[in-house]
């Protein structure tokens, strides 16, 4: 018996006990145990996917919080004031 079948058998037994140990309903208990196994597997898959997404998100946030090095240089203020020449046109 495989590990999955063993877990399914244990679930079916718990369902049987929870219902008060009724006679003649073993097929129903076995079916419901299989459905629970499938639901548990889906739940585990969703949990794993969410954990991976959380890790990816944390990596993105960490990368964004690092200081960025700009490739543009800032111009320093000129040491001398610039001279502006204004021309006035007189008609």
Helix content, binned percent: 55-70%
Number of strands: 0
The major pleated sheet works out as:
none
How far is the N terminus from the C terminus? 108 Å
**Overall form:** rod-shaped
Poorly predicted runs: none
Structural class by secondary-structure content: mainly alpha
Specify the number of helices: 2
Instruction: From the alpha carbons, calculate the radius of gyration and give it in angstroms.
Output: 36 Å
Rounded average pLDDT = 78
- Beta-strand fraction estimate: under 5%
Order of helices and strands: HH
Summarize this entry quickly.
By secondary structure, this protein is mainly alpha-helical. The chain contains two helices and no strands. The N and C termini lie far apart (108 Å).
Explain how this protein is built.
The protein has helices at about 5-20, 25-65. It is rod-shaped, with a radius of gyration of 36 Å. The chain has a domain at about 5-65. The chain has about 90 residues and is mostly helical.
Keywords:
2 helices, 91 residues, mainly alpha, rod-shaped, 62% helix
Topology diagram in text:
Layout lengths: L2 H16 L7 H40 L26
